[in-house]
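tool_call: predict_structure(chain=1)
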Amino acid sequence: MGNPFDLADEGSYRRWRERKLDSAPRRIEGILVALDDPRALTAGERDALLERCATANMAIYSSNTAGDADKEIPRGLGRQLGLVHLDSHWLTDDDAISPISVRGAEERGERREFIPYTDKPIRWHTDGYYNLPARTVRGMVLHCVQSAATGGENQLLDHEIAYILLRDENPDFIRALSRDDVVIIPPRMDDDGVARAAQPGPVFSIDAQGFLHMRYTARTISIEWRGDAATQAAVAALARLLATPTPWTLQGRLEPGMGLVCNNVLHDRSTFTETPQKRRLLYRARYHERVAATPVPVAA
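tool_result:
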């Protein structure tokens, strides 16, 4: 079969690249799926979500749950798509699902310093880039309960497309960004000392099933890149790629009842404004597995 991510296997890469670019959507409507209730998918709805995730590593859904602040919506949806092992960390609620809101940050003071819980823009990233390898975030569900009065749009880019564009420009970029120590997330400190150890790792890696994974943030603070010329050239090339929309960069805003289910693709968020009547609230569920065709039994 060959390995398209092996830089020495150009034939497999070219065949995979052709299939990928031929099928990759260029408009957000290409990944949109209308659902009735995400907690109870029909066979057709589930197949449509799986097909889009298999093709583009992501799907956007609309549903008849606008205004419903039930956390079972993202959790139940994930379970039906093979997502079960939630990534719990110190900023999630006890159920491992994060309410992303400015109000929540105000109520829980420890969240205020973290940009996702503010109205500030968030630069390009994949989720959980600071996690230990054993807790790699491979899948995610982001469900909108309430959108902001204005703003809060997202750009989305399939990380496999980013890989193709970088490899086509220069395979050495991929070689540099695949080193196990190409980027280090410095330790996070708290009053008791080291709360999270420094995390070295690659940008691009291949999981046990042969799927491409990307670990990245465009932040320039709390991140350390290797200082060699090859790394610096590759990082600059990736930054240039993300600075200008590609034909495959999708853009939109989640409205109440809508959501994103994905294999942790690249994404950003624009700044937003709120009113007392429209205070933004999204539920974020991160998972250690990818979207899969095998559903997880409800009992799990």
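agent: The chain has one domain: 25-287. Proceeding to next step.
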